[in-house]
Design brief:
- It contains 9 helices and no strands.
- It has helices at about 1-25, 30-60, 75-100, 105-130, 130-150, 155-165, 230-235, 240-250, 250-285.
Length: about 290
């Protein structure tokens, strides 16, 4: 019995310095630290790539030397890519470097940026639901600007072609007649020899079965009074505004699911950053 007590005493003596050693070690969770780091590395590179694509697009259009070419700054796809990429890059940078270097200032900036972004997204969603008609008017106004400047900006041209041909399968705002607003597709352009007069872009045309090479002249003359073809089989007669509303109604649940998932990720990012900051402060106080 005496021997057993002595063995227990020796065991306790051996455990005491070991516990002291464990207390001296950093209590910051490596899992949490590198989770924040890895997650934000992806956003860092994504933001940098998006920003680079936007700058490349502006360079290709020689926008930096001819800023007067910008027909509508707010709707310029390249500028939107630059702005979104820059914001994503900065947020990813603060989260990535802040977690890796255990920098509380950068982590606080990261958490605040996510919180502000989350509030803006929630505000935009609520205001969009309340002012639905105003949103429709703004969308129609923006689409009209795209139509008017269709040939002036290749990025806007590619965007509207993608919307009409691949996404919504529509033509114009309310219908094909809206292309009368474009100088090249206006019926009065016949007098100056425009072959596209009284027509619509090829993106308004329905693809034929087994069509391999896209017919870029399929929309010629379709708005002429004497056109004898069947319009419903050649072009989309539905306007993009109504098509967008129908798409939103059909895909409301998936869109809402994506928005909720993004919001949850942002909330988790804020919580993880704050927990990591708390651990860093706790370690700092322990070593004072």
């Amino acid at each position: 019995m005496k021997l057993f007590r002595e063995i227990c005493f020796r065991a306790v003596e051996m455990m005491i310095p070991a516990r002291k050693y464990r207390r001296d070690r950093s209590e910051i969770s490596c899992c949490l630290k590198y989770l924040i780091f890895g997650f934000n590395v992806i956003f860092w590179f994504f933001g940098g790539g998006t920003m680079a694509i936007g700058v490349w697009a502006w360079t290709e259009k020689d926008t930096f030397n001819n800023l007067n070419r910008l027909t509508n700054v707010a709707l310029d796809p390249a500028l939107i890519l630059i702005v979104v990429g820059s914001i994503t890059f900065m947020i990813g940078f603060t989260g990535c470097v802040g977690a890796l270097r255990e920098n509380t200032c950068l982590l606080a900036t990261y958490a605040i940026s996510l919180a502000v972004l989350l509030l803006l997204e929630m505000s935009a969603g609520i205001l969009g639901f309340i002012f639905k008609e105003w949103i429709k008017q703004q969308a129609a106004s923006g689409f009209q600007a795209f139509i008017v400047h269709y040939r002036d900006d290749p990025d806007q041209q590619n965007l509207i072609d993608w919307i009409q041909e691949q996404w919504l399968e529509c033509c114009g705002i309310e219908g094909p007649k809206d292309w009368e607003r474009n100088i090249y597709f206006n019926c009065s352009s016949i007098e100056v020899g425009s072959r596209e007069a009284c027509g619509v872009p090829f993106s308004c045309c329905k693809r034929l079965p087994n069509e391999v090479i896209r017919n870029n002249q399929c929309g010629y003359d379709v708005r002429k009074a004497d056109y004898d073809g069947d319009l419903s089989s050649i072009i989309f007669e539905r306007g993009c505004l109504r098509a967008g509303e129908e798409w939103m109604e059909v895909n409301l649940v998936p869109v809402a699911g994506v928005m909720v998932a993004v919001a949850i990720l942002q909330i988790l990012g804020i919580c993880f950053a704050q927990n990591l900051r708390a651990d860093i402060f706790e370690i700092g106080r322990a070593h004072v």
